[in-house]
Design brief:
By secondary structure, the protein is mostly helical. The chain is built from five helices and no strands. Helix 4 packs antiparallel against helix 5.
């Protein structure tokens, strides 16, 4: 994939989408949460730390429901806060790692991720 050295993150994402047979970022903008987060962080409309706090609050509220929703089998609020703070600092200094920097995501428990259980939705193959 030939991407000009002067490309910004949005141009790079657009080029990647086109090379995968997709449309441009402009055409996907309304549907792409990644680009919306990235632009909000760049403009200062939101920070990764603010987003992390909203996620932590939503998870706490869902776990407090009766019955609890348990959207995630495991999460570490302090780790999320720490990673979001680092991302917030990178955006503030104009050095985000990529368009994905600060974008929240959840990982299925079928993949091995250090520090989190791999259960594939079952108790008998759970491992820490």
């Amino acid at each position: 994939m030939d991407i000009p050295a002067s490309s910004n993150a949005v141009d790079t994402a657009s080029h990647a989408l086109k090379s995968l047979g997709g449309s441009s970022v402009a055409e996907e903008e309304e549907q792409s949460a990644v680009i919306r987060y990235h632009r909000a962080y760049l403009s200062g409309a939101a920070t990764p730390s603010q987003v992390a706090e909203r996620i932590i609050t939503a998870l706490q509220e869902s776990d407090a429901m009766s019955p609890p929703m348990r959207f995630l089998i495991s999460h570490d609020p302090e780790k999320l806060r720490s990673q979001a703070a680092a991302s917030t600092l990178r955006y503030a200094s104009g050095t985000p790692l990529s368009v994905l920097d600060g974008v929240p995501f959840a990982m299925k428990d079928e993949a091995d991720v250090e520090g989190y259980p791999t259960t594939a939705g079952t108790a008998f193959i759970a491992k820490e």
